[in-house]
Fold this sequence. Notes:
The radius of gyration is 13 Å and the shape is globular. It is α/β, with parallel strands linked by helices. It has a 4-stranded parallel sheet with strand order 2-1-3-4, with helices on both faces. The longest helix is centred in the middle third of the chain and has 11 residues, at 51-61. 39% of the residues lie in helices and 19% in strands.
Amino acid sequence: MLHRRPTVSFLLVDRPANLLAVSGLGSSTWDLSAAGDNSCNFGFIGAMGQAAPFALGLALAQPEKRVVLFTGDGEILMSLGILATIANLAPANLSLVVLDNEAYSETG
């Protein structure tokens, strides 16, 4: 079993300068923050379902940079249709990491 926070930290070890990291609601943002402060981090605290569309837009607007999305399973379900759009557009510079954040009712 992979644990969220160490996994996110591991994936960002020796982070290249051209990597933009987007995190979804709640736990994913705290995990990204715990991996280290970086001006190329984009965290979403209260915009459930909006991290994946933002990551897609960022990847399309910045094709010379890598974009990785760290988000939770519940948040990705809030905008499930974005997965079809990502698959259709297939930006080569976008990676998604969907984590089981072991939480329910993150939004309260």
